[in-house]
């Protein structure tokens, strides 16, 4: 039976009642690719899902190998004071996740256990959280974006070397936005290349990654659409900040339809922070000026979901070139793609070669 017939059969049952076609989320759960925890936006991943994530990571490594990045990995948490300094709470207080822990004495422990006993008599949804009155903030918070932990670390090293630095990071990140859209998870991985240097270095880096990120997505045979970002800044002032971000073209996103064909999900982002982080953490260039920073972020779950969405849940049936890119001669195919991109760029530049205007 083809897909259209399936959906037609599902939308109207024999008794005339309207049924809803299974959502992409339902299909992913039924296929076992994602594992439901009972909490919206918090999933387990199957071996196959993780295999695609791993193979994508290899392709991204080849895509950035010539940049000779320093590879750094942090656990998905950062120092609370560094998080406070980052000013994340100015823009996204509703998305942040703090880590609390029991910090009381024996009496507090008894109170906690009594409150917990009472709570256990209720169903999951009606449970009181009174036992949490004993919880206190710890000195660490959940990482909101993979690059956040590295800026204070870079600052402590002293001024950047000539030419700046390029760092390769990968981390689970947390955003408190429970949703049924599988493309909007509460915990997900971001792979990033981060550039620290002067403004020209960082702008050139971002332009290069808009091109390379688009290349990766086209090699994966997914639709490429790059647009200015529309971040959900919080509160009354949020719209002004969002407008300013767009007016200054600080952030671009690569958008792909994931959950449903009508809406698009940002799968990659290309960010220019100007001297925001450089000024906060006092990161200096070799000449003493405040460093500018930028990053390219690959949403590992989102790109993986886009592949399943566009090529189907059976990876054996994915297009040959996509399979070969991920499970075959990844390095060669990425290198060929980059060479082709450079040739096309050179050809496009030719008509203007003699134009001094
Ligand atoms: Zn970043």
Description:
The N terminus is likely disordered. The strands form 3 sheets. The chain has a 7-stranded mixed β-sheet. It has a 3-stranded antiparallel β-sheet with strand order 4-6-5. A two-stranded antiparallel ribbon has the order 1-2. The protein folds into 2 domains: 271 residues, BirA Bifunctional Protein, domain 2, CATH 3.30.930; 39 residues, no CATH class. By secondary structure, it is α+β, with helices and mostly antiparallel strands. α3 crosses α13. The longest helix has 21 residues.
The CATH topology of the largest domain comes to: BirA Bifunctional Protein, domain 2
What small molecules does the structure contain? zinc ion
What is the total number of structural domains?
Answer: 2
Task: Give the beta-strand count.
Answer: 12
Rough shape?
Answer: globular
Lateral strand order in the biggest sheet: 3-7-8-12-11-10-9
Q: Return the CATH architecture of the largest domain.
A: 2-Layer Sandwich
Structural class determined from secondary elements: alpha+beta
The helical percent reads 40-55%
Could you tell me the mean pLDDT? 91
Q: Approximately what portion of the residues adopt beta-strand conformation? A: 15-25%
**Main sheet attributes: strand count, strand direction, barrel closure:** 7 strands, mixed
């Amino acid at each position: 039976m083809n897909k259209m017939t399936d959906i037609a059969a599902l939308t109207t049952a024999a008794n005339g009642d309207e049924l809803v076609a299974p959502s992409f989320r339902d299909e992913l759960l039924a296929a076992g690719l994602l594992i439901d925890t009972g909490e919206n936006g918090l999933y387990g991943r199957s071996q196959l899902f993780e295999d695609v994530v791993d193979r994508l990571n290899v392709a991204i490594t080849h895509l950035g190998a010539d940049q000779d990045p320093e590879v750094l990995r942090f656990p998905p948490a950062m120092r609370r004071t560094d998080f406070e300094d980052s000013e994340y709470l100015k823009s996204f207080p509703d998305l942040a996740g703090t880590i609390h822990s029991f910090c009381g004495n024996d009496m507090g422990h008894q109170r906690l256990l009594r409150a917990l006993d009472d709570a256990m008599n209720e169903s999951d949804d009606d449970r009181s959280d009174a036992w949490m009155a004993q919880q206190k903030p710890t000195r660490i918070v959940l990482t909101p974006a993979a690059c956040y932990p590295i800026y204070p670390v870079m600052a402590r090293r002293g001024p950047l070397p000539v030419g700046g630095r390029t760092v390769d990071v990968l981390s689970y990140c947390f955003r408190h936005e429970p949703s049924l859209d599988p493309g909007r998870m509460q915990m997900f991985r971001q792979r990033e290349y981060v550039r620290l240097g002067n403004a020209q270095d960082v702008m050139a880096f971002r332009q290069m990654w808009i091109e390379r990120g688009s290349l990766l997505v086209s090699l994966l045979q997914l639709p490429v659409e790059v647009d200015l970002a529309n971040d959900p800044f919080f509160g009354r002032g949020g719209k002004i900040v969002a407008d300013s971000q767009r007016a200054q073209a600080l952030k671009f996103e690569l958008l792909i339809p994931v959950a449903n064909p009508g809406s698009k999900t940002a799968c990659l982002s290309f960010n220019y922070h100007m001297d925001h982080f450089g000024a906060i953490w006092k990161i200096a260039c070799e000449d003493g000026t405040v460093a500018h920073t930028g990053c390219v972020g690959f949403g590992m779950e989102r790109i993986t979901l886009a592949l399943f969405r566009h090529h189907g849940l059976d990876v054996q049936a994915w297009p040959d070139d996509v399979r070969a890119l991920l499970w075959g001669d990844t390095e060669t195919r990425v290198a060929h793609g980059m060479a082709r991109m450079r040739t096309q760029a050179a050809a496009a530049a030719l008509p203007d070669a003699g134009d001094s205007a």
